[in-house]
Specification:
The chain has six helices and 25 strands. With 432 residues, the protein is of the alpha+beta class.
């Protein structure tokens, strides 16, 4: 009786369990089929679908302005005025120059009705005038900026600039590298056999047209047998470059106020003056460079003097702190906004190379003073900026190891390749 009872109960429980299992099974939500991504294959220019429209490009002529352009496009004076009025808030007609390109977007029929007019403001920024409605409207448009992560390496034969060209990279990367290593390496003294490897991001317009070198992500430079690492790291909301020990590469002063030009006269107490034809002290460094070459302040400071000074020509003097000041002479012109009392940052362009005053050709006469006394600019030493904080050392080590391993891996993979510039990773990110 007992066994029959328990068997009955067991059977009943089994049936309940089976029913419950089936209920749960059928009640569960079935996995959804993956939704296929819809790809828009239509062609867009300036944010406008141009599949069924014609795009015609024009070059502005000398003396062109909106009125002459609109008249040439067939608009009446009243229409031209209406279009100009609608665009006045986003388009400055004084910025339109001969040689700039603009375009019309029209219907493809024989009437070729203009639907849009697009004017450039820069390589990436444009003004679009919409003529599709009864009243014209104008709005700004910015082309998408993408970044391509690249690797480059090379051994210097003549100059860093020429080597960049030889390995197929943008020579402007040489300027970027010189900025990173401005204190560690004197690029006037780069030797044959020096080598470099770098990972960097290059900005592109519409993913096709190279715009600029946006950043150096890591670098290794071997100069006269010594290796210098450059690791970017964020600290106190500021990104700086550090060596393998976490010491900042940024010093109080840059090595030189110019990029990649030769020294023609050094610091001396007895130099034969080429114009005065007599020996006199030359308490500075002469850098030969073409007229118009940008001159940078070697450190942050305040402009305490500016103007014309006899044999020195156009000059600027900057006080960096209580001890140091610098002077830049024979300038062709001053940078915009530079005046007595102006605060300047390290590496900021303050003027341009010239040949004013007593000068035999375009060059910069650069001088450094400590406590009011001239000192040799090539012998100036200054302490580095703050190192990586102790509490951030572990994070820094992770970043450093990952980047140096990436560089090492790229070098090993491309030791036999003739093309030393390669694309690594591409990320689509709008430039803000």
């Amino acid at each position: 009786m007992t066994c029959k009872y328990f068997n009955t109960i067991s059977n009943w429980l089994a049936l309940v369990g089976a029913f419950t299992f089936l209920s749960i099974g059928f009640g569960c939500k079935q996995p959804e089929k993956p939704v296929e991504e819809v790809v828009d294959l239509r062609e867009y220019q300036y944010g406008i679908c141009t599949d069924s429209l014609d795009v015609t490009h024009y070059v502005m002529k000398p003396g062109d302005n909106p009125a002459t352009i609109f008249a040439r496009l067939g608009f009446t004076p009243a229409q031209a005025d209406s279009i100009s009025q609608c665009a006045s808030g986003v388009l400055d007609p004084t910025k339109l120059k001969a040689g700039m390109e603009f375009c019309t977007i029209t219907t493809p029929d024989s009437m070729a009705t203009i639907k849009y007019i697009v004017f450039p403001k820069s390589l990436t920024d444009f003004v679009v005038i919409n003529l599709c409605e009864e009243l014209p409207a104008a709005y700004p448009f910015t082309k998408e900026i993408t970044y391509k992560r690249k690797f480059v390496s090379g051994t210097i034969n003549s100059s860093l600039w020429n080597t960049m060209k030889e390995v197929g990279s943008d020579p402007l990367l040489a300027i970027k590298l010189s900025d990173v290593y401005a204190w560690q390496i004197d690029f006037f003294d780069v030797k044959e056999g020096d080598s470099f490897s770098a990972i960097y991001n290059e900005a592109y317009i519409d993913d096709t047209t190279a715009l600029n070198i946006s950043s150096i992500e890591a670098a290794v430079f071997t100069h006269q047998g010594k290796t210098y690492n450059a690791i970017p790291f964020m600290q106190d909301s500021i990104q700086e470059y550090y060596d393998e020990e976490g010491k900042s590469l940024r010093k109080a002063f840059l090595k030189a106020p110019l990029d990649f030009f030769r020294i023609t006269s050094k610091y001396t107490n007895a130099r034969f003056h080429p114009i005065l034809k007599r020996y006199r002290a030359h308490h500075g460094i002469d850098y030969a460079a073409p007229t118009g070459t940008p001159v940078k302040s070697i450190g942050a400071g305040v402009v305490i003097a500016k103007g014309f000074q006899g044999g020195g020509g156009n000059f600027i003097k900057i006080r960096h702190n209580s001890a140091y000041s610098t002077t830049y002479m024979h300038l062709s012109k001053f940078a915009r906004g530079i005046r007595i009392g102006s605060t300047v940052q390290q590496g900021e362009v303050i003027a341009y190379v010239g040949s004013t005053g007593l000068s035999t050709g375009p060059h910069l006469d650069f001088r450094v003073y400590k406590n009011g006394q001239p000192i040799n600019p090539l012998h100036v030493e200054a302490p580095p900026s703050k190192p990586v904080k102790p509490e951030l050392k572990d994070s820094f080590l992770l970043v450093k190891n990952a980047l140096l391993q990436e560089i090492d891996s790229c070098n090993r993979l491309h030791t036999t390749s003739s093309n030393r510039t390669i694309a690594l990773i591409q990320s689509n990110t709008n430039l803000k």
